[in-house]
C-alpha cells in the first residue's frame, strides 16, 4: 500500500523530500510575491464606424460590442431581457430602455431608461418612466432624436403611446397617446413620426406645451402588404427607407409633413415579376427579423431575400440583394453559405455587411468583394446595430 511505502522511507529520503517540498513552496511564494495579481480597467474610445452592437439574446443577456476591423470583442453593455439599446450620436453614452422587477420576473415593476458612459460602461443614472412595451427585436421601439437630446420609447398599455425623455435633464417629460401607431422615426426639428395601422404616417410635433399630431394619407396596406418594422433611417438625409412583405420599396422624407415616394418592386429590378399577395405564388421575397440595412454614404440598401410564398416574411434570407437606391439597380445578388435573418452594414467608406442566423454566428463580409473577413461564433442572435458617429 502507498501509506506503508511512505512509512518505510529512510531518514535521508524523508529529509530530501522535505527539502524539495520547501524549495517548491518557496519558489511558488517567490513568484507570487514578484508578480502579485492586479486588476485593471480598460477605457474605451468613443464608438468607431467599424463597431457593431450585437444583442446576445435570451441565453446570453447583454449587448456585445465588436470591432469589425479585427473581429474582436471590445466590451459589453449591460442590457436586460426584452430591453432596447440606443447609442448617443455624440458617442458619450449608451442608453437602455428596460423593465425590471424587484424579485426577478415578479415583484414591483420598474420601467426606466438606464444611462451608461461609453468610456467605462459605468452606470450613470436611471431615468424612471411610466411604462414600455415588453417585446424584443425591434429597433424602432426606442429611438433618439438626431441631436441626441431626446429619447422616444414606445409603449402599449393597453393603447399605443410614446414616452418622451429629456436626455439632457435626464427626466421623463410626458406620455403621448398615439392610437394605432408604432415603429418610431426621428423627425428633426419636429419630434418624431410613426407608422400607423391605417397605412398612414403620423407626425408628432413635441415643441409646444401640448403635442400636435398630424397624419399623411395612407400609402400602404397594413393588412394586405405590411411594412417590415425593422426599417432603415438616414440621419443625414432625414429619410426613412421601407420595404413591404411583397418587396415594394418606399422612401419617406421627414418634416412637418413627410413626403412618401412612389414605390417600386425590388424583384422587377432583376427582371422577374413583382411579389404578389396571392397564395401559392412562388417567388423571391424579402424576409427575416431584421431584413434590410442602409449604407447612407453610397445610398446602397442591402436586403435579405429568399424563395418562398407570400406571408413567408419571417423566413431567413438565402441571398443578399445589393440595391443602389440612386440608380434603382440591383448591383449584385450574393448567395449566403448559411441563411441569415439579420443584416446590418457599417457606415465606413469601405463598408462591411454583417449577417447572422439562428445559430448565433455573426459573419462579417466585405461589401465590395463579399469575402468573409471574420466569423464570430455564438456572438448573439438578436438585433444588430452599427455605430453611426456624428
Topology:
Blueprint: H1 2-7, H2 11-34, E1 51-55, E2 63-67, E3 72-77, E4 84-87, E5 93-103, E6 106-117, E7 123-128, E8 142-144, E9 150-156, E10 160-166, E11 171-177, E12 181-187, E13 191-196, E14 201-205, E15 212-215, E16 232-234, E17 239-243, E18 248-253, E19 259-260, E20 264-265, E21 283-286, E22 292-295, E23 300-308, E24 317-324, E25 329-340, E26 342-345, E27 352-356, E28 362-366, E29 372-376, E30 384-386
Antiparallel strand pairs: 1-2, 1-30, 2-3, 4-5, 5-6, 6-7, 8-9, 9-10, 10-11, 12-13, 13-14, 14-15, 16-17, 17-18, 18-19, 18-20, 21-23, 22-23, 23-24, 24-25, 26-27, 27-28, 28-29
Summarize the structure.
The chain is mainly β and 390 residues long. The chain has helices spanning 2-7, 11-34; strands at residues 51-55, 63-67, 72-77, 84-87, 93-103, 106-117, 123-128, 142-144, 150-156, 160-166, 171-177, 181-187, 191-196, 201-205, 212-215, 232-234, 239-243, 248-253, 259-260, 264-265, 283-286, 292-295, 300-308, 317-324, 329-340, 342-345, 352-356, 362-366, 372-376, 384-386.
Please state roughly what percent of the residues sit in beta strands, choosing from under 5%, 5-15%, 15-25%, 25-35%, 35-45% or over 45%.
35-45%
Low-pLDDT segments: 1-31
N- to C-terminal separation? 75 Å
The number of helical elements comes to 2
- Write down the Rg: 26 Å
Helicity, in percent?
A: under 10%
Q: Tell me, rounded to a whole number, the average pLDDT.
A: 90
> Which structural class matches the secondary elements?
mainly beta
Major sheet: size, sense and barrel closure?
5 strands, antiparallel
Compute the number of strand runs: 30
Anisotropy-based shape = globular
Amino acid at each position: 500500500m502507498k501509506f506503508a511505502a511512505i512509512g518505510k522511507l529512510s531518514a535521508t529520503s524523508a529529509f530530501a523530500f522535505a527539502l524539495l517540498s520547501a524549495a517548491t513552496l518557496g519558489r511558488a511564494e517567490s513568484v507570487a510575491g514578484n508578480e502579485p495579481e492586479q486588476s485593471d480597467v480598460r477605457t474605451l474610445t468613443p464608438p468607431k464606424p467599424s463597431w457593431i452592437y450585437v444583442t446576445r439574446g435570451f441565453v446570453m443577456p447583454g449587448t456585445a460590442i465588436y470591432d469589425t476591423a479585427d473581429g474582436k470583442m471590445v466590451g459589453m453593455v449591460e442590457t436586460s431581457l426584452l430591453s432596447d439599446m440606443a447609442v448617443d450620436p455624440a458617442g458619450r453614452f449608451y442608453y437602455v430602455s428596460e423593465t425590471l422587477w424587484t424579485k426577478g420576473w415578479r415583484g414591483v415593476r420598474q420601467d426606466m431608461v438606464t444611462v451608461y458612459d461609453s468610456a467605462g460602461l459605468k452606470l450613470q443614472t436611471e431615468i424612471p418612466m411610466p411604462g414600455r412595451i415588453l417585446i424584443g427585436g425591434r429597433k424602432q421601439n426606442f429611438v433618439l432624436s438626431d441631436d441626441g437630446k431626446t429619447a422616444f420609447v414606445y409603449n402599449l398599455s393597453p393603447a399605443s403611446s410614446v414616452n418622451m425623455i429629456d436626455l439632457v435633464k435626464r427626466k421623463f417629460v410626458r406620455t403621448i397617446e398615439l392610437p394605432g401607431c408604432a415603429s418610431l422615426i426621428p423627425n428633426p426639428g419636429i419630434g418624431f413620426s410613426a407608422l400607423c395601422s391605417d397605412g398612414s404616417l403620423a407626425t408628432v410635433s413635441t415643441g409646444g406645451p401640448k403635442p400636435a399630431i398630424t397624419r399623411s394619407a395612407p400609402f400602404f396596406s397594413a393588412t394586405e402588404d405590411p411594412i417590415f418594422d425593422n426599417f432603415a433611417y438616414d440621419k443625414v438625409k432625414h429619410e426613412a427607407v421601407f420595404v413591404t412583405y411583397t418587396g415594394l420599396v418606399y422612401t419617406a422624407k421627414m418634416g412637418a409633413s413627410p413626403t412618401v415616394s412612389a414605390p417600386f418592386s425590388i424583384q422587377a429590378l432583376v427582371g422577374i415579376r413583382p411579389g404578389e399577395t396571392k397564395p401559392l405564388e412562388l417567388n423571391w421575397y424579402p424576409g427575416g427579423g431584421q431584413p434590410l440595412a442602409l449604407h447612407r454614404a453610397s445610398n446602397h440598401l442591402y436586403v435579405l431575400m429568399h424563395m418562398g410564398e407570400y406571408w413567408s416574411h419571417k423566413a431567413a434570407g438565402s441571398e443578399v440583394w445589393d440595391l443602389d437606391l440612386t440608380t434603382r439597380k440591383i448591383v449584385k445578388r450574393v448567395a449566403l453559405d448559411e441563411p441569415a435573418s439579420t443584416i446590418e452594414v457599417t457606415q465606413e467608406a469601405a463598408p462591411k455587411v454583417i449577417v447572422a442566423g439562428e445559430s448565433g454566428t455573426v459573419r462579417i463580409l466585405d461589401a465590395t468583394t463579399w469575402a468573409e473577413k471574420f466569423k464570430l461564433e455564438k456572438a448573439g442572435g438578436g438585433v444588430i446595430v452599427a455605430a453611426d458617429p456624428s
